[in-house]
Design brief:
With 547 residues, the chain is an alpha/beta fold. It folds into 3 domains: 10-218, Substrate Binding Domain Of Dnak, Chain:A, Domain 2; 225-354, Rossmann fold (3-Layer(aba) Sandwich); 378-545, Rossmann fold. Helix content is 45%, strand content 10%. The strands form 4 sheets. The protein has a 6-stranded parallel sheet with strand order 4-3-2-5-6-7. It binds iron/sulfur/oxygen hybrid cluster and iron/sulfur cluster. Iron/sulfur cluster binds next to loops. Iron/sulfur/oxygen hybrid cluster (FSO) is lined by residues 265-266, 290, 309-310, 401, 428-429, 453-454, 488-489, 491-492.
């Protein structure tokens, strides 16, 4: 096992015996083999597209496979064994389709990702140890290959949510395949991979735009909303993750049952969508970011539905109340499958909730959010006016992820220390570090504007573009906006690549720079894009404010 895909990689180098996240070595290796096989599938499916014999099921298989290997999504060895076997079967099916179409597939058999095969599970386990990150020897090529692979994993997660709502774009699938096929190509240079990283950013923007369209067309444009963080006296179900369609189905099925529904972590922004306001039993948000789930799930008392990441290995005290769905999985945890019609039957969770006590109240009050692009642009005149009068001097984009590391208290301290004439623009679970601080408002504009989930960082980019236009600027970097972004897993990688593609410079990334960036690649990102890390609140504030 060698994994360094997330911010909590051991010693900021890599996890080698077991993941800090709890991922076991055998699962890490199987994930590597699944990715390896998906590269082979991608290579072949590109050919299939050329001759018009590609099948839609390959698209879905690709995004599900990539998504399942993101940090804290799936820990289940059997899931990966099954998926690898399905991947080999799908790969052979594509080969057969190509042969029938007259393509000389045998020419590609020298590529291991296309030809490897197995007899027993033990073969799979053995091969899985040979195809990991370290199989690329040159550390700069390895670094760039992993950078774009993690970017494409994040892209796949967003494409998956859009797909679930009936939105897809063949250009995005084709690009993912192209990228994964290029990772197999030993003739590519550092410059080639840098160019591919930029292109990944472009498709990252397209994928987030597609998901934005899917979410807003289905559930309406997010609106300002005060979300209750207390509890009621009914049994409840807690929903975590990012999948709005799962939430919708659960809200429908719980209506009138006496069971309340609460959001956790990244599901909080669901409250901002008009379509979910009609459910009186959609009570509020419980708790904080994903990494606090071990304490909060215990106190919640009722069942918990994990629709995507971030799951942490459940404690025995509440493991029987955890349910997974979609590509999420954990051995010994009940999984709710999707029916052929896209429907999910949550009745077991609802019956389970009825047997449980109401949640323990851990806090009271409200948090405000719903500042996605449509809502903010409605307020654009007011915001522009406030900037022109000097009442708002600077915006700080503090989007991204939260995590366990103690050093992340930096973000709370940074938010507290910001001058009162600054506004934080946020998205993703990073917000939990400062969204309950009551930082006040500026002429009625809250000082923390939450656009939504991490993919809604797209909204922040739309807002920045609009402000650039309104202020008549040539370059997005002339705006009074600083970027102090917290990252954790691979969706943050695609958000970062998207921002770089949009021309945003001088992004600061913390609490540590990615372990997968080699010294040379880091140097390149510093020189080309002004990427930087963080130091301490005092020095960073001076640096950002230029004082
Ligand atoms: Fe957070 Fe987890 Fe949304 Fe991530 S819940 S860390 S970037 O999965 O997806 O922000
Ligand atoms: Fe380690 Fe992160 Fe990989 Fe988990 S996902 S094994 S914590 S680097």
């Amino acid at each position: 096992m060698f994994c360094y895909q997330c911010q909590e990689a051991l010693k900021n180098t890599g996890c080698t015996t077991v993941g800090v996240c709890g991922k076991t070595a055998d699962v890490a290796n199987l994930q590597d083999l699944l990715i390896f096989t998906l590269k082979g599938i991608s290579f072949l499916n590109l050919k299939a597209r050329e001759v018009g014999v590609n099948k839609e099921k390959s698209d879905r298989f690709l995004i599900e496979g990539l998504f399942s290997t993101i940090t804290n999504v799936n820990f289940d060895r059997n899931f990966f064994l099954r998926r690898i076997k399905e991947a080999v079967a799908l790969r052979e099916e594509i080969k057969e389709d190509l042969r029938k179409a007259g393509v000389k597939v045998d020419e590609y058999e020298s590529i291991d990702a296309i030809s490897w095969t197995y007899g027993t599970d033990a073969d799979i386990e053995a091969i899985s140890q040979e195809v990991g990150v370290l199989s690329t020897e040159d550390e700069d090529i390895r670094s760039l290959r992993e950078l774009i692979t993690y970017g494409v994993k994040g892209m796949a997660a967003y494409a998956y949510h859009a797909y679930q709502l009936g939105y897809k774009d063949d250009n995005i699938f084709r690009f993912m395949e192209k990228l994964l096929a290029k990772v197999l190509d030993d003739s590519l240079t550092v410059d080639d991979y840098v160019a591919l990283a930029m292109e990944t950013g472009k498709y990252g923007v397209d994928t987030m735009a597609l998901l934005d369209k899917a979410n807003t067309s289905t559930y309406g444009h997010p609106e300002i909303k005060k979300v209750n963080i207390g509890v009621r006296n009914n049994p409840g179900i807690l929903v975590s993750g990012h999948d709005l369609k799962d939430l919708e189905q659960l809200l429908e099925q719980t209506a009138g049952t006496g069971v309340d529904v609460y959001t956790h972590g990244e599901m909080l922004p669901a409250h901002y969508y008009p379509a979910f306001k009609k459910y009186p039993h959609f009570v509020g948000n419980y708790g904080n970011a994903w990494w606090q789930q071990d304490k909060e799930f215990e106190l919640f008392n009722g069942p918990i539905l994990m629709t995507t990441n971030c799951l942490i290995p459940p404690k025995d005290s509440y493991k029987d109340r955890v349910y997974t769905t979609g590509v999420v999985g954990f051995e010994g945890v009940k999984h709710i499958p999707e029916g052929p019609d896209g429907k999910k039957d949550f009745s077991e969770i609802i019956e389970h909730a009825k047997r449980c006590k109401p949640p323990v109240e851990i806090e009271r009050g409200e948090i405000i959010g719903g500042f996605a692009h449509n809502q903010v642009l409605q307020l654009a005149d007011k915001i522009v006016e406030t900037v022109k009068t000097g009442a708002i001097k600077r915006f700080f984009v503090m989007a991204g992820c939260d995590g366990r590391m103690k050093s992340r208290t930096y973000y709370t301290e940074f938010a507290k220390a910001l001058p009162k004439d600054t506004v934080i623009l946020t998205a993703g679970c990073a917000k939990y570090r400062y969204n309950k601080l009551n930082l006040g408002d500026i002429n009625g504009i809250p000082r923390v504007l939450d656009a939504g989930q991490c993919n809604d960082s797209y909204s922040l980019a739309v807002i920045a573009m609009k402000l650039k236009e309104v202020f008549g600027l040539n370059d997005i970097n002339e705006l009074p906006i600083s970027y102090n972004i917290a990252w954790y897993e691979q969706k943050a990688v695609i958000v970062l690549l998207a921002l770089l593609y949009l021309g945003v410079k001088n992004i600061h990334l913390g609490p540590t720079l990615p372990a997968f960036l080699s010294p040379n690649v880091t140097k390149l990102l510093v020189e080309k894009f002004g990427i930087g890390g963080i130091t301490n609140v005092e020095d960073d504030l001076k640096m950002f404010l230029g004082v």
